[in-house]
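I hope you will forgive my troubling you with a question about protein structure. I should value your view on which stretches of the chain appear to form regular backbone elements. Here, with my thanks, is the record as I have it:
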Amino acid sequence: MSVRTAKPGKPPTRRPTSKPVARRTNPYARRLTPAAGRKTPDSAMKAGTRSTLIGAVFLMATSAIGPAVITQTALFTVSLGAAFAFAVVASVLVDLAVQLNVWRVIGVSGRRAQELGNLVAPRLGTAMAALLFAGGLVFTVGNLAGAGLGTNAMFGLDPRLGGALSAVVAIGIFLARQTGFALDRVVVVLGGVMLIIVGWLTVVSGPPVGRALRNVVLPEQADFLVITTLIGGTLGGYVMYAGVHRLLDSGVSGPRYVREISRASVAAILITGLLRAVLFLAILGVIAGGATLDHSNPAASAFRHTAGEFGLRAFGLLLWAAAIAGVIGAAYTTVTFVTSRTKTPDGTRTTLVVLFIAVSTVIQLSIGTAPAKLLVFAGAVNGLLLPLGIGVLLWVAWQRADLLRGYRYPRPLLVLGGAAWLLTVYLAVRSVKPVFSLL
């Protein structure tokens, strides 16, 4: 009987005696790099990165168009008419200059905003986190109230019950096995629903587009409080950081991703501006047709005047989609400000998100629906606090090149961001008295 031996020069192969230890994976992360020992085509890796970028874009955009923004847009369209077009475009331009810098600084450095704040000055990041947590809690309560109003318009449910059920839906998304995948897909779907509904109302109402375009260049009137409120609603509080913090959790950070990060920041603002502009045109068309809207809820009044009960149901779906997206964005981003990417276990972070939504739900159930004026006030206060966060990140780009991992920051972009920051400071100072007069 012959014995099989190993070939000369080649050591015999050995089978592992034990199974490899499974590594814990971050449920918020998306796999963007090939596994060890396995080659992945560049196209597949680019597809994974693209999917993550789209999710981050829509997380920011849908967070920026919540019930408060819908209420603001409707109220300002009623009061300013076609002149509101100037405020919409002005706010989008300022938002672009700000977001290009905010996303680039955070994305290239690979550090969250509060971490950079603590490196700029002791406890500064902690103060930023405390302010953002308080604001995120207020807006989550307001978004849950908006979700309840949406379910009431759609199905006739009690608003408090509708808000509680919506909170359960949001919690279920964060408890999903692949949280990151579920989060990215849900916000994209919600954004698509909002665009379809608002686009439909615009077509039906037939707004005077020419008059609106003329007001972009030659406004019949300009209101500093309105512009401040729009900027605060789009970038204030947690909204400015939602998308880029999502990118960090997904592994998209560092100088090699600077082009993708910049494009994503621009896309997020453009989608937000598109949603706001289309909603403005839709309501302007209703007003131009001679309708008188109910000042207590002008957006719902516009939908109902245009399409009766069907329009009211459509408004309910729009409001619910905007509200649930706001709850998701606020809960996710707020928790990123009070946890660490490297030190906080994944289970702890998920638990904190669930508790944050649950506490917000209890508060919402105890106080009921927030009035429209309070939602506008909250957005305006965000505009007043906005210069702090922008100033910290611009300081990092200007004076702390050591935090940017060898990346040479473009001076023209920094100058543009500085000009936008000065404008936010000026608008905030001009709007202090009008903001508090809202109450």
Observations:
- The mean pLDDT is 84.
- The two ends are 98 Å apart (CA to CA).
- DSSP finds 15 helices and no strands in the chain.
- Residues 72 and 376 are 6 Å apart (CA to CA).
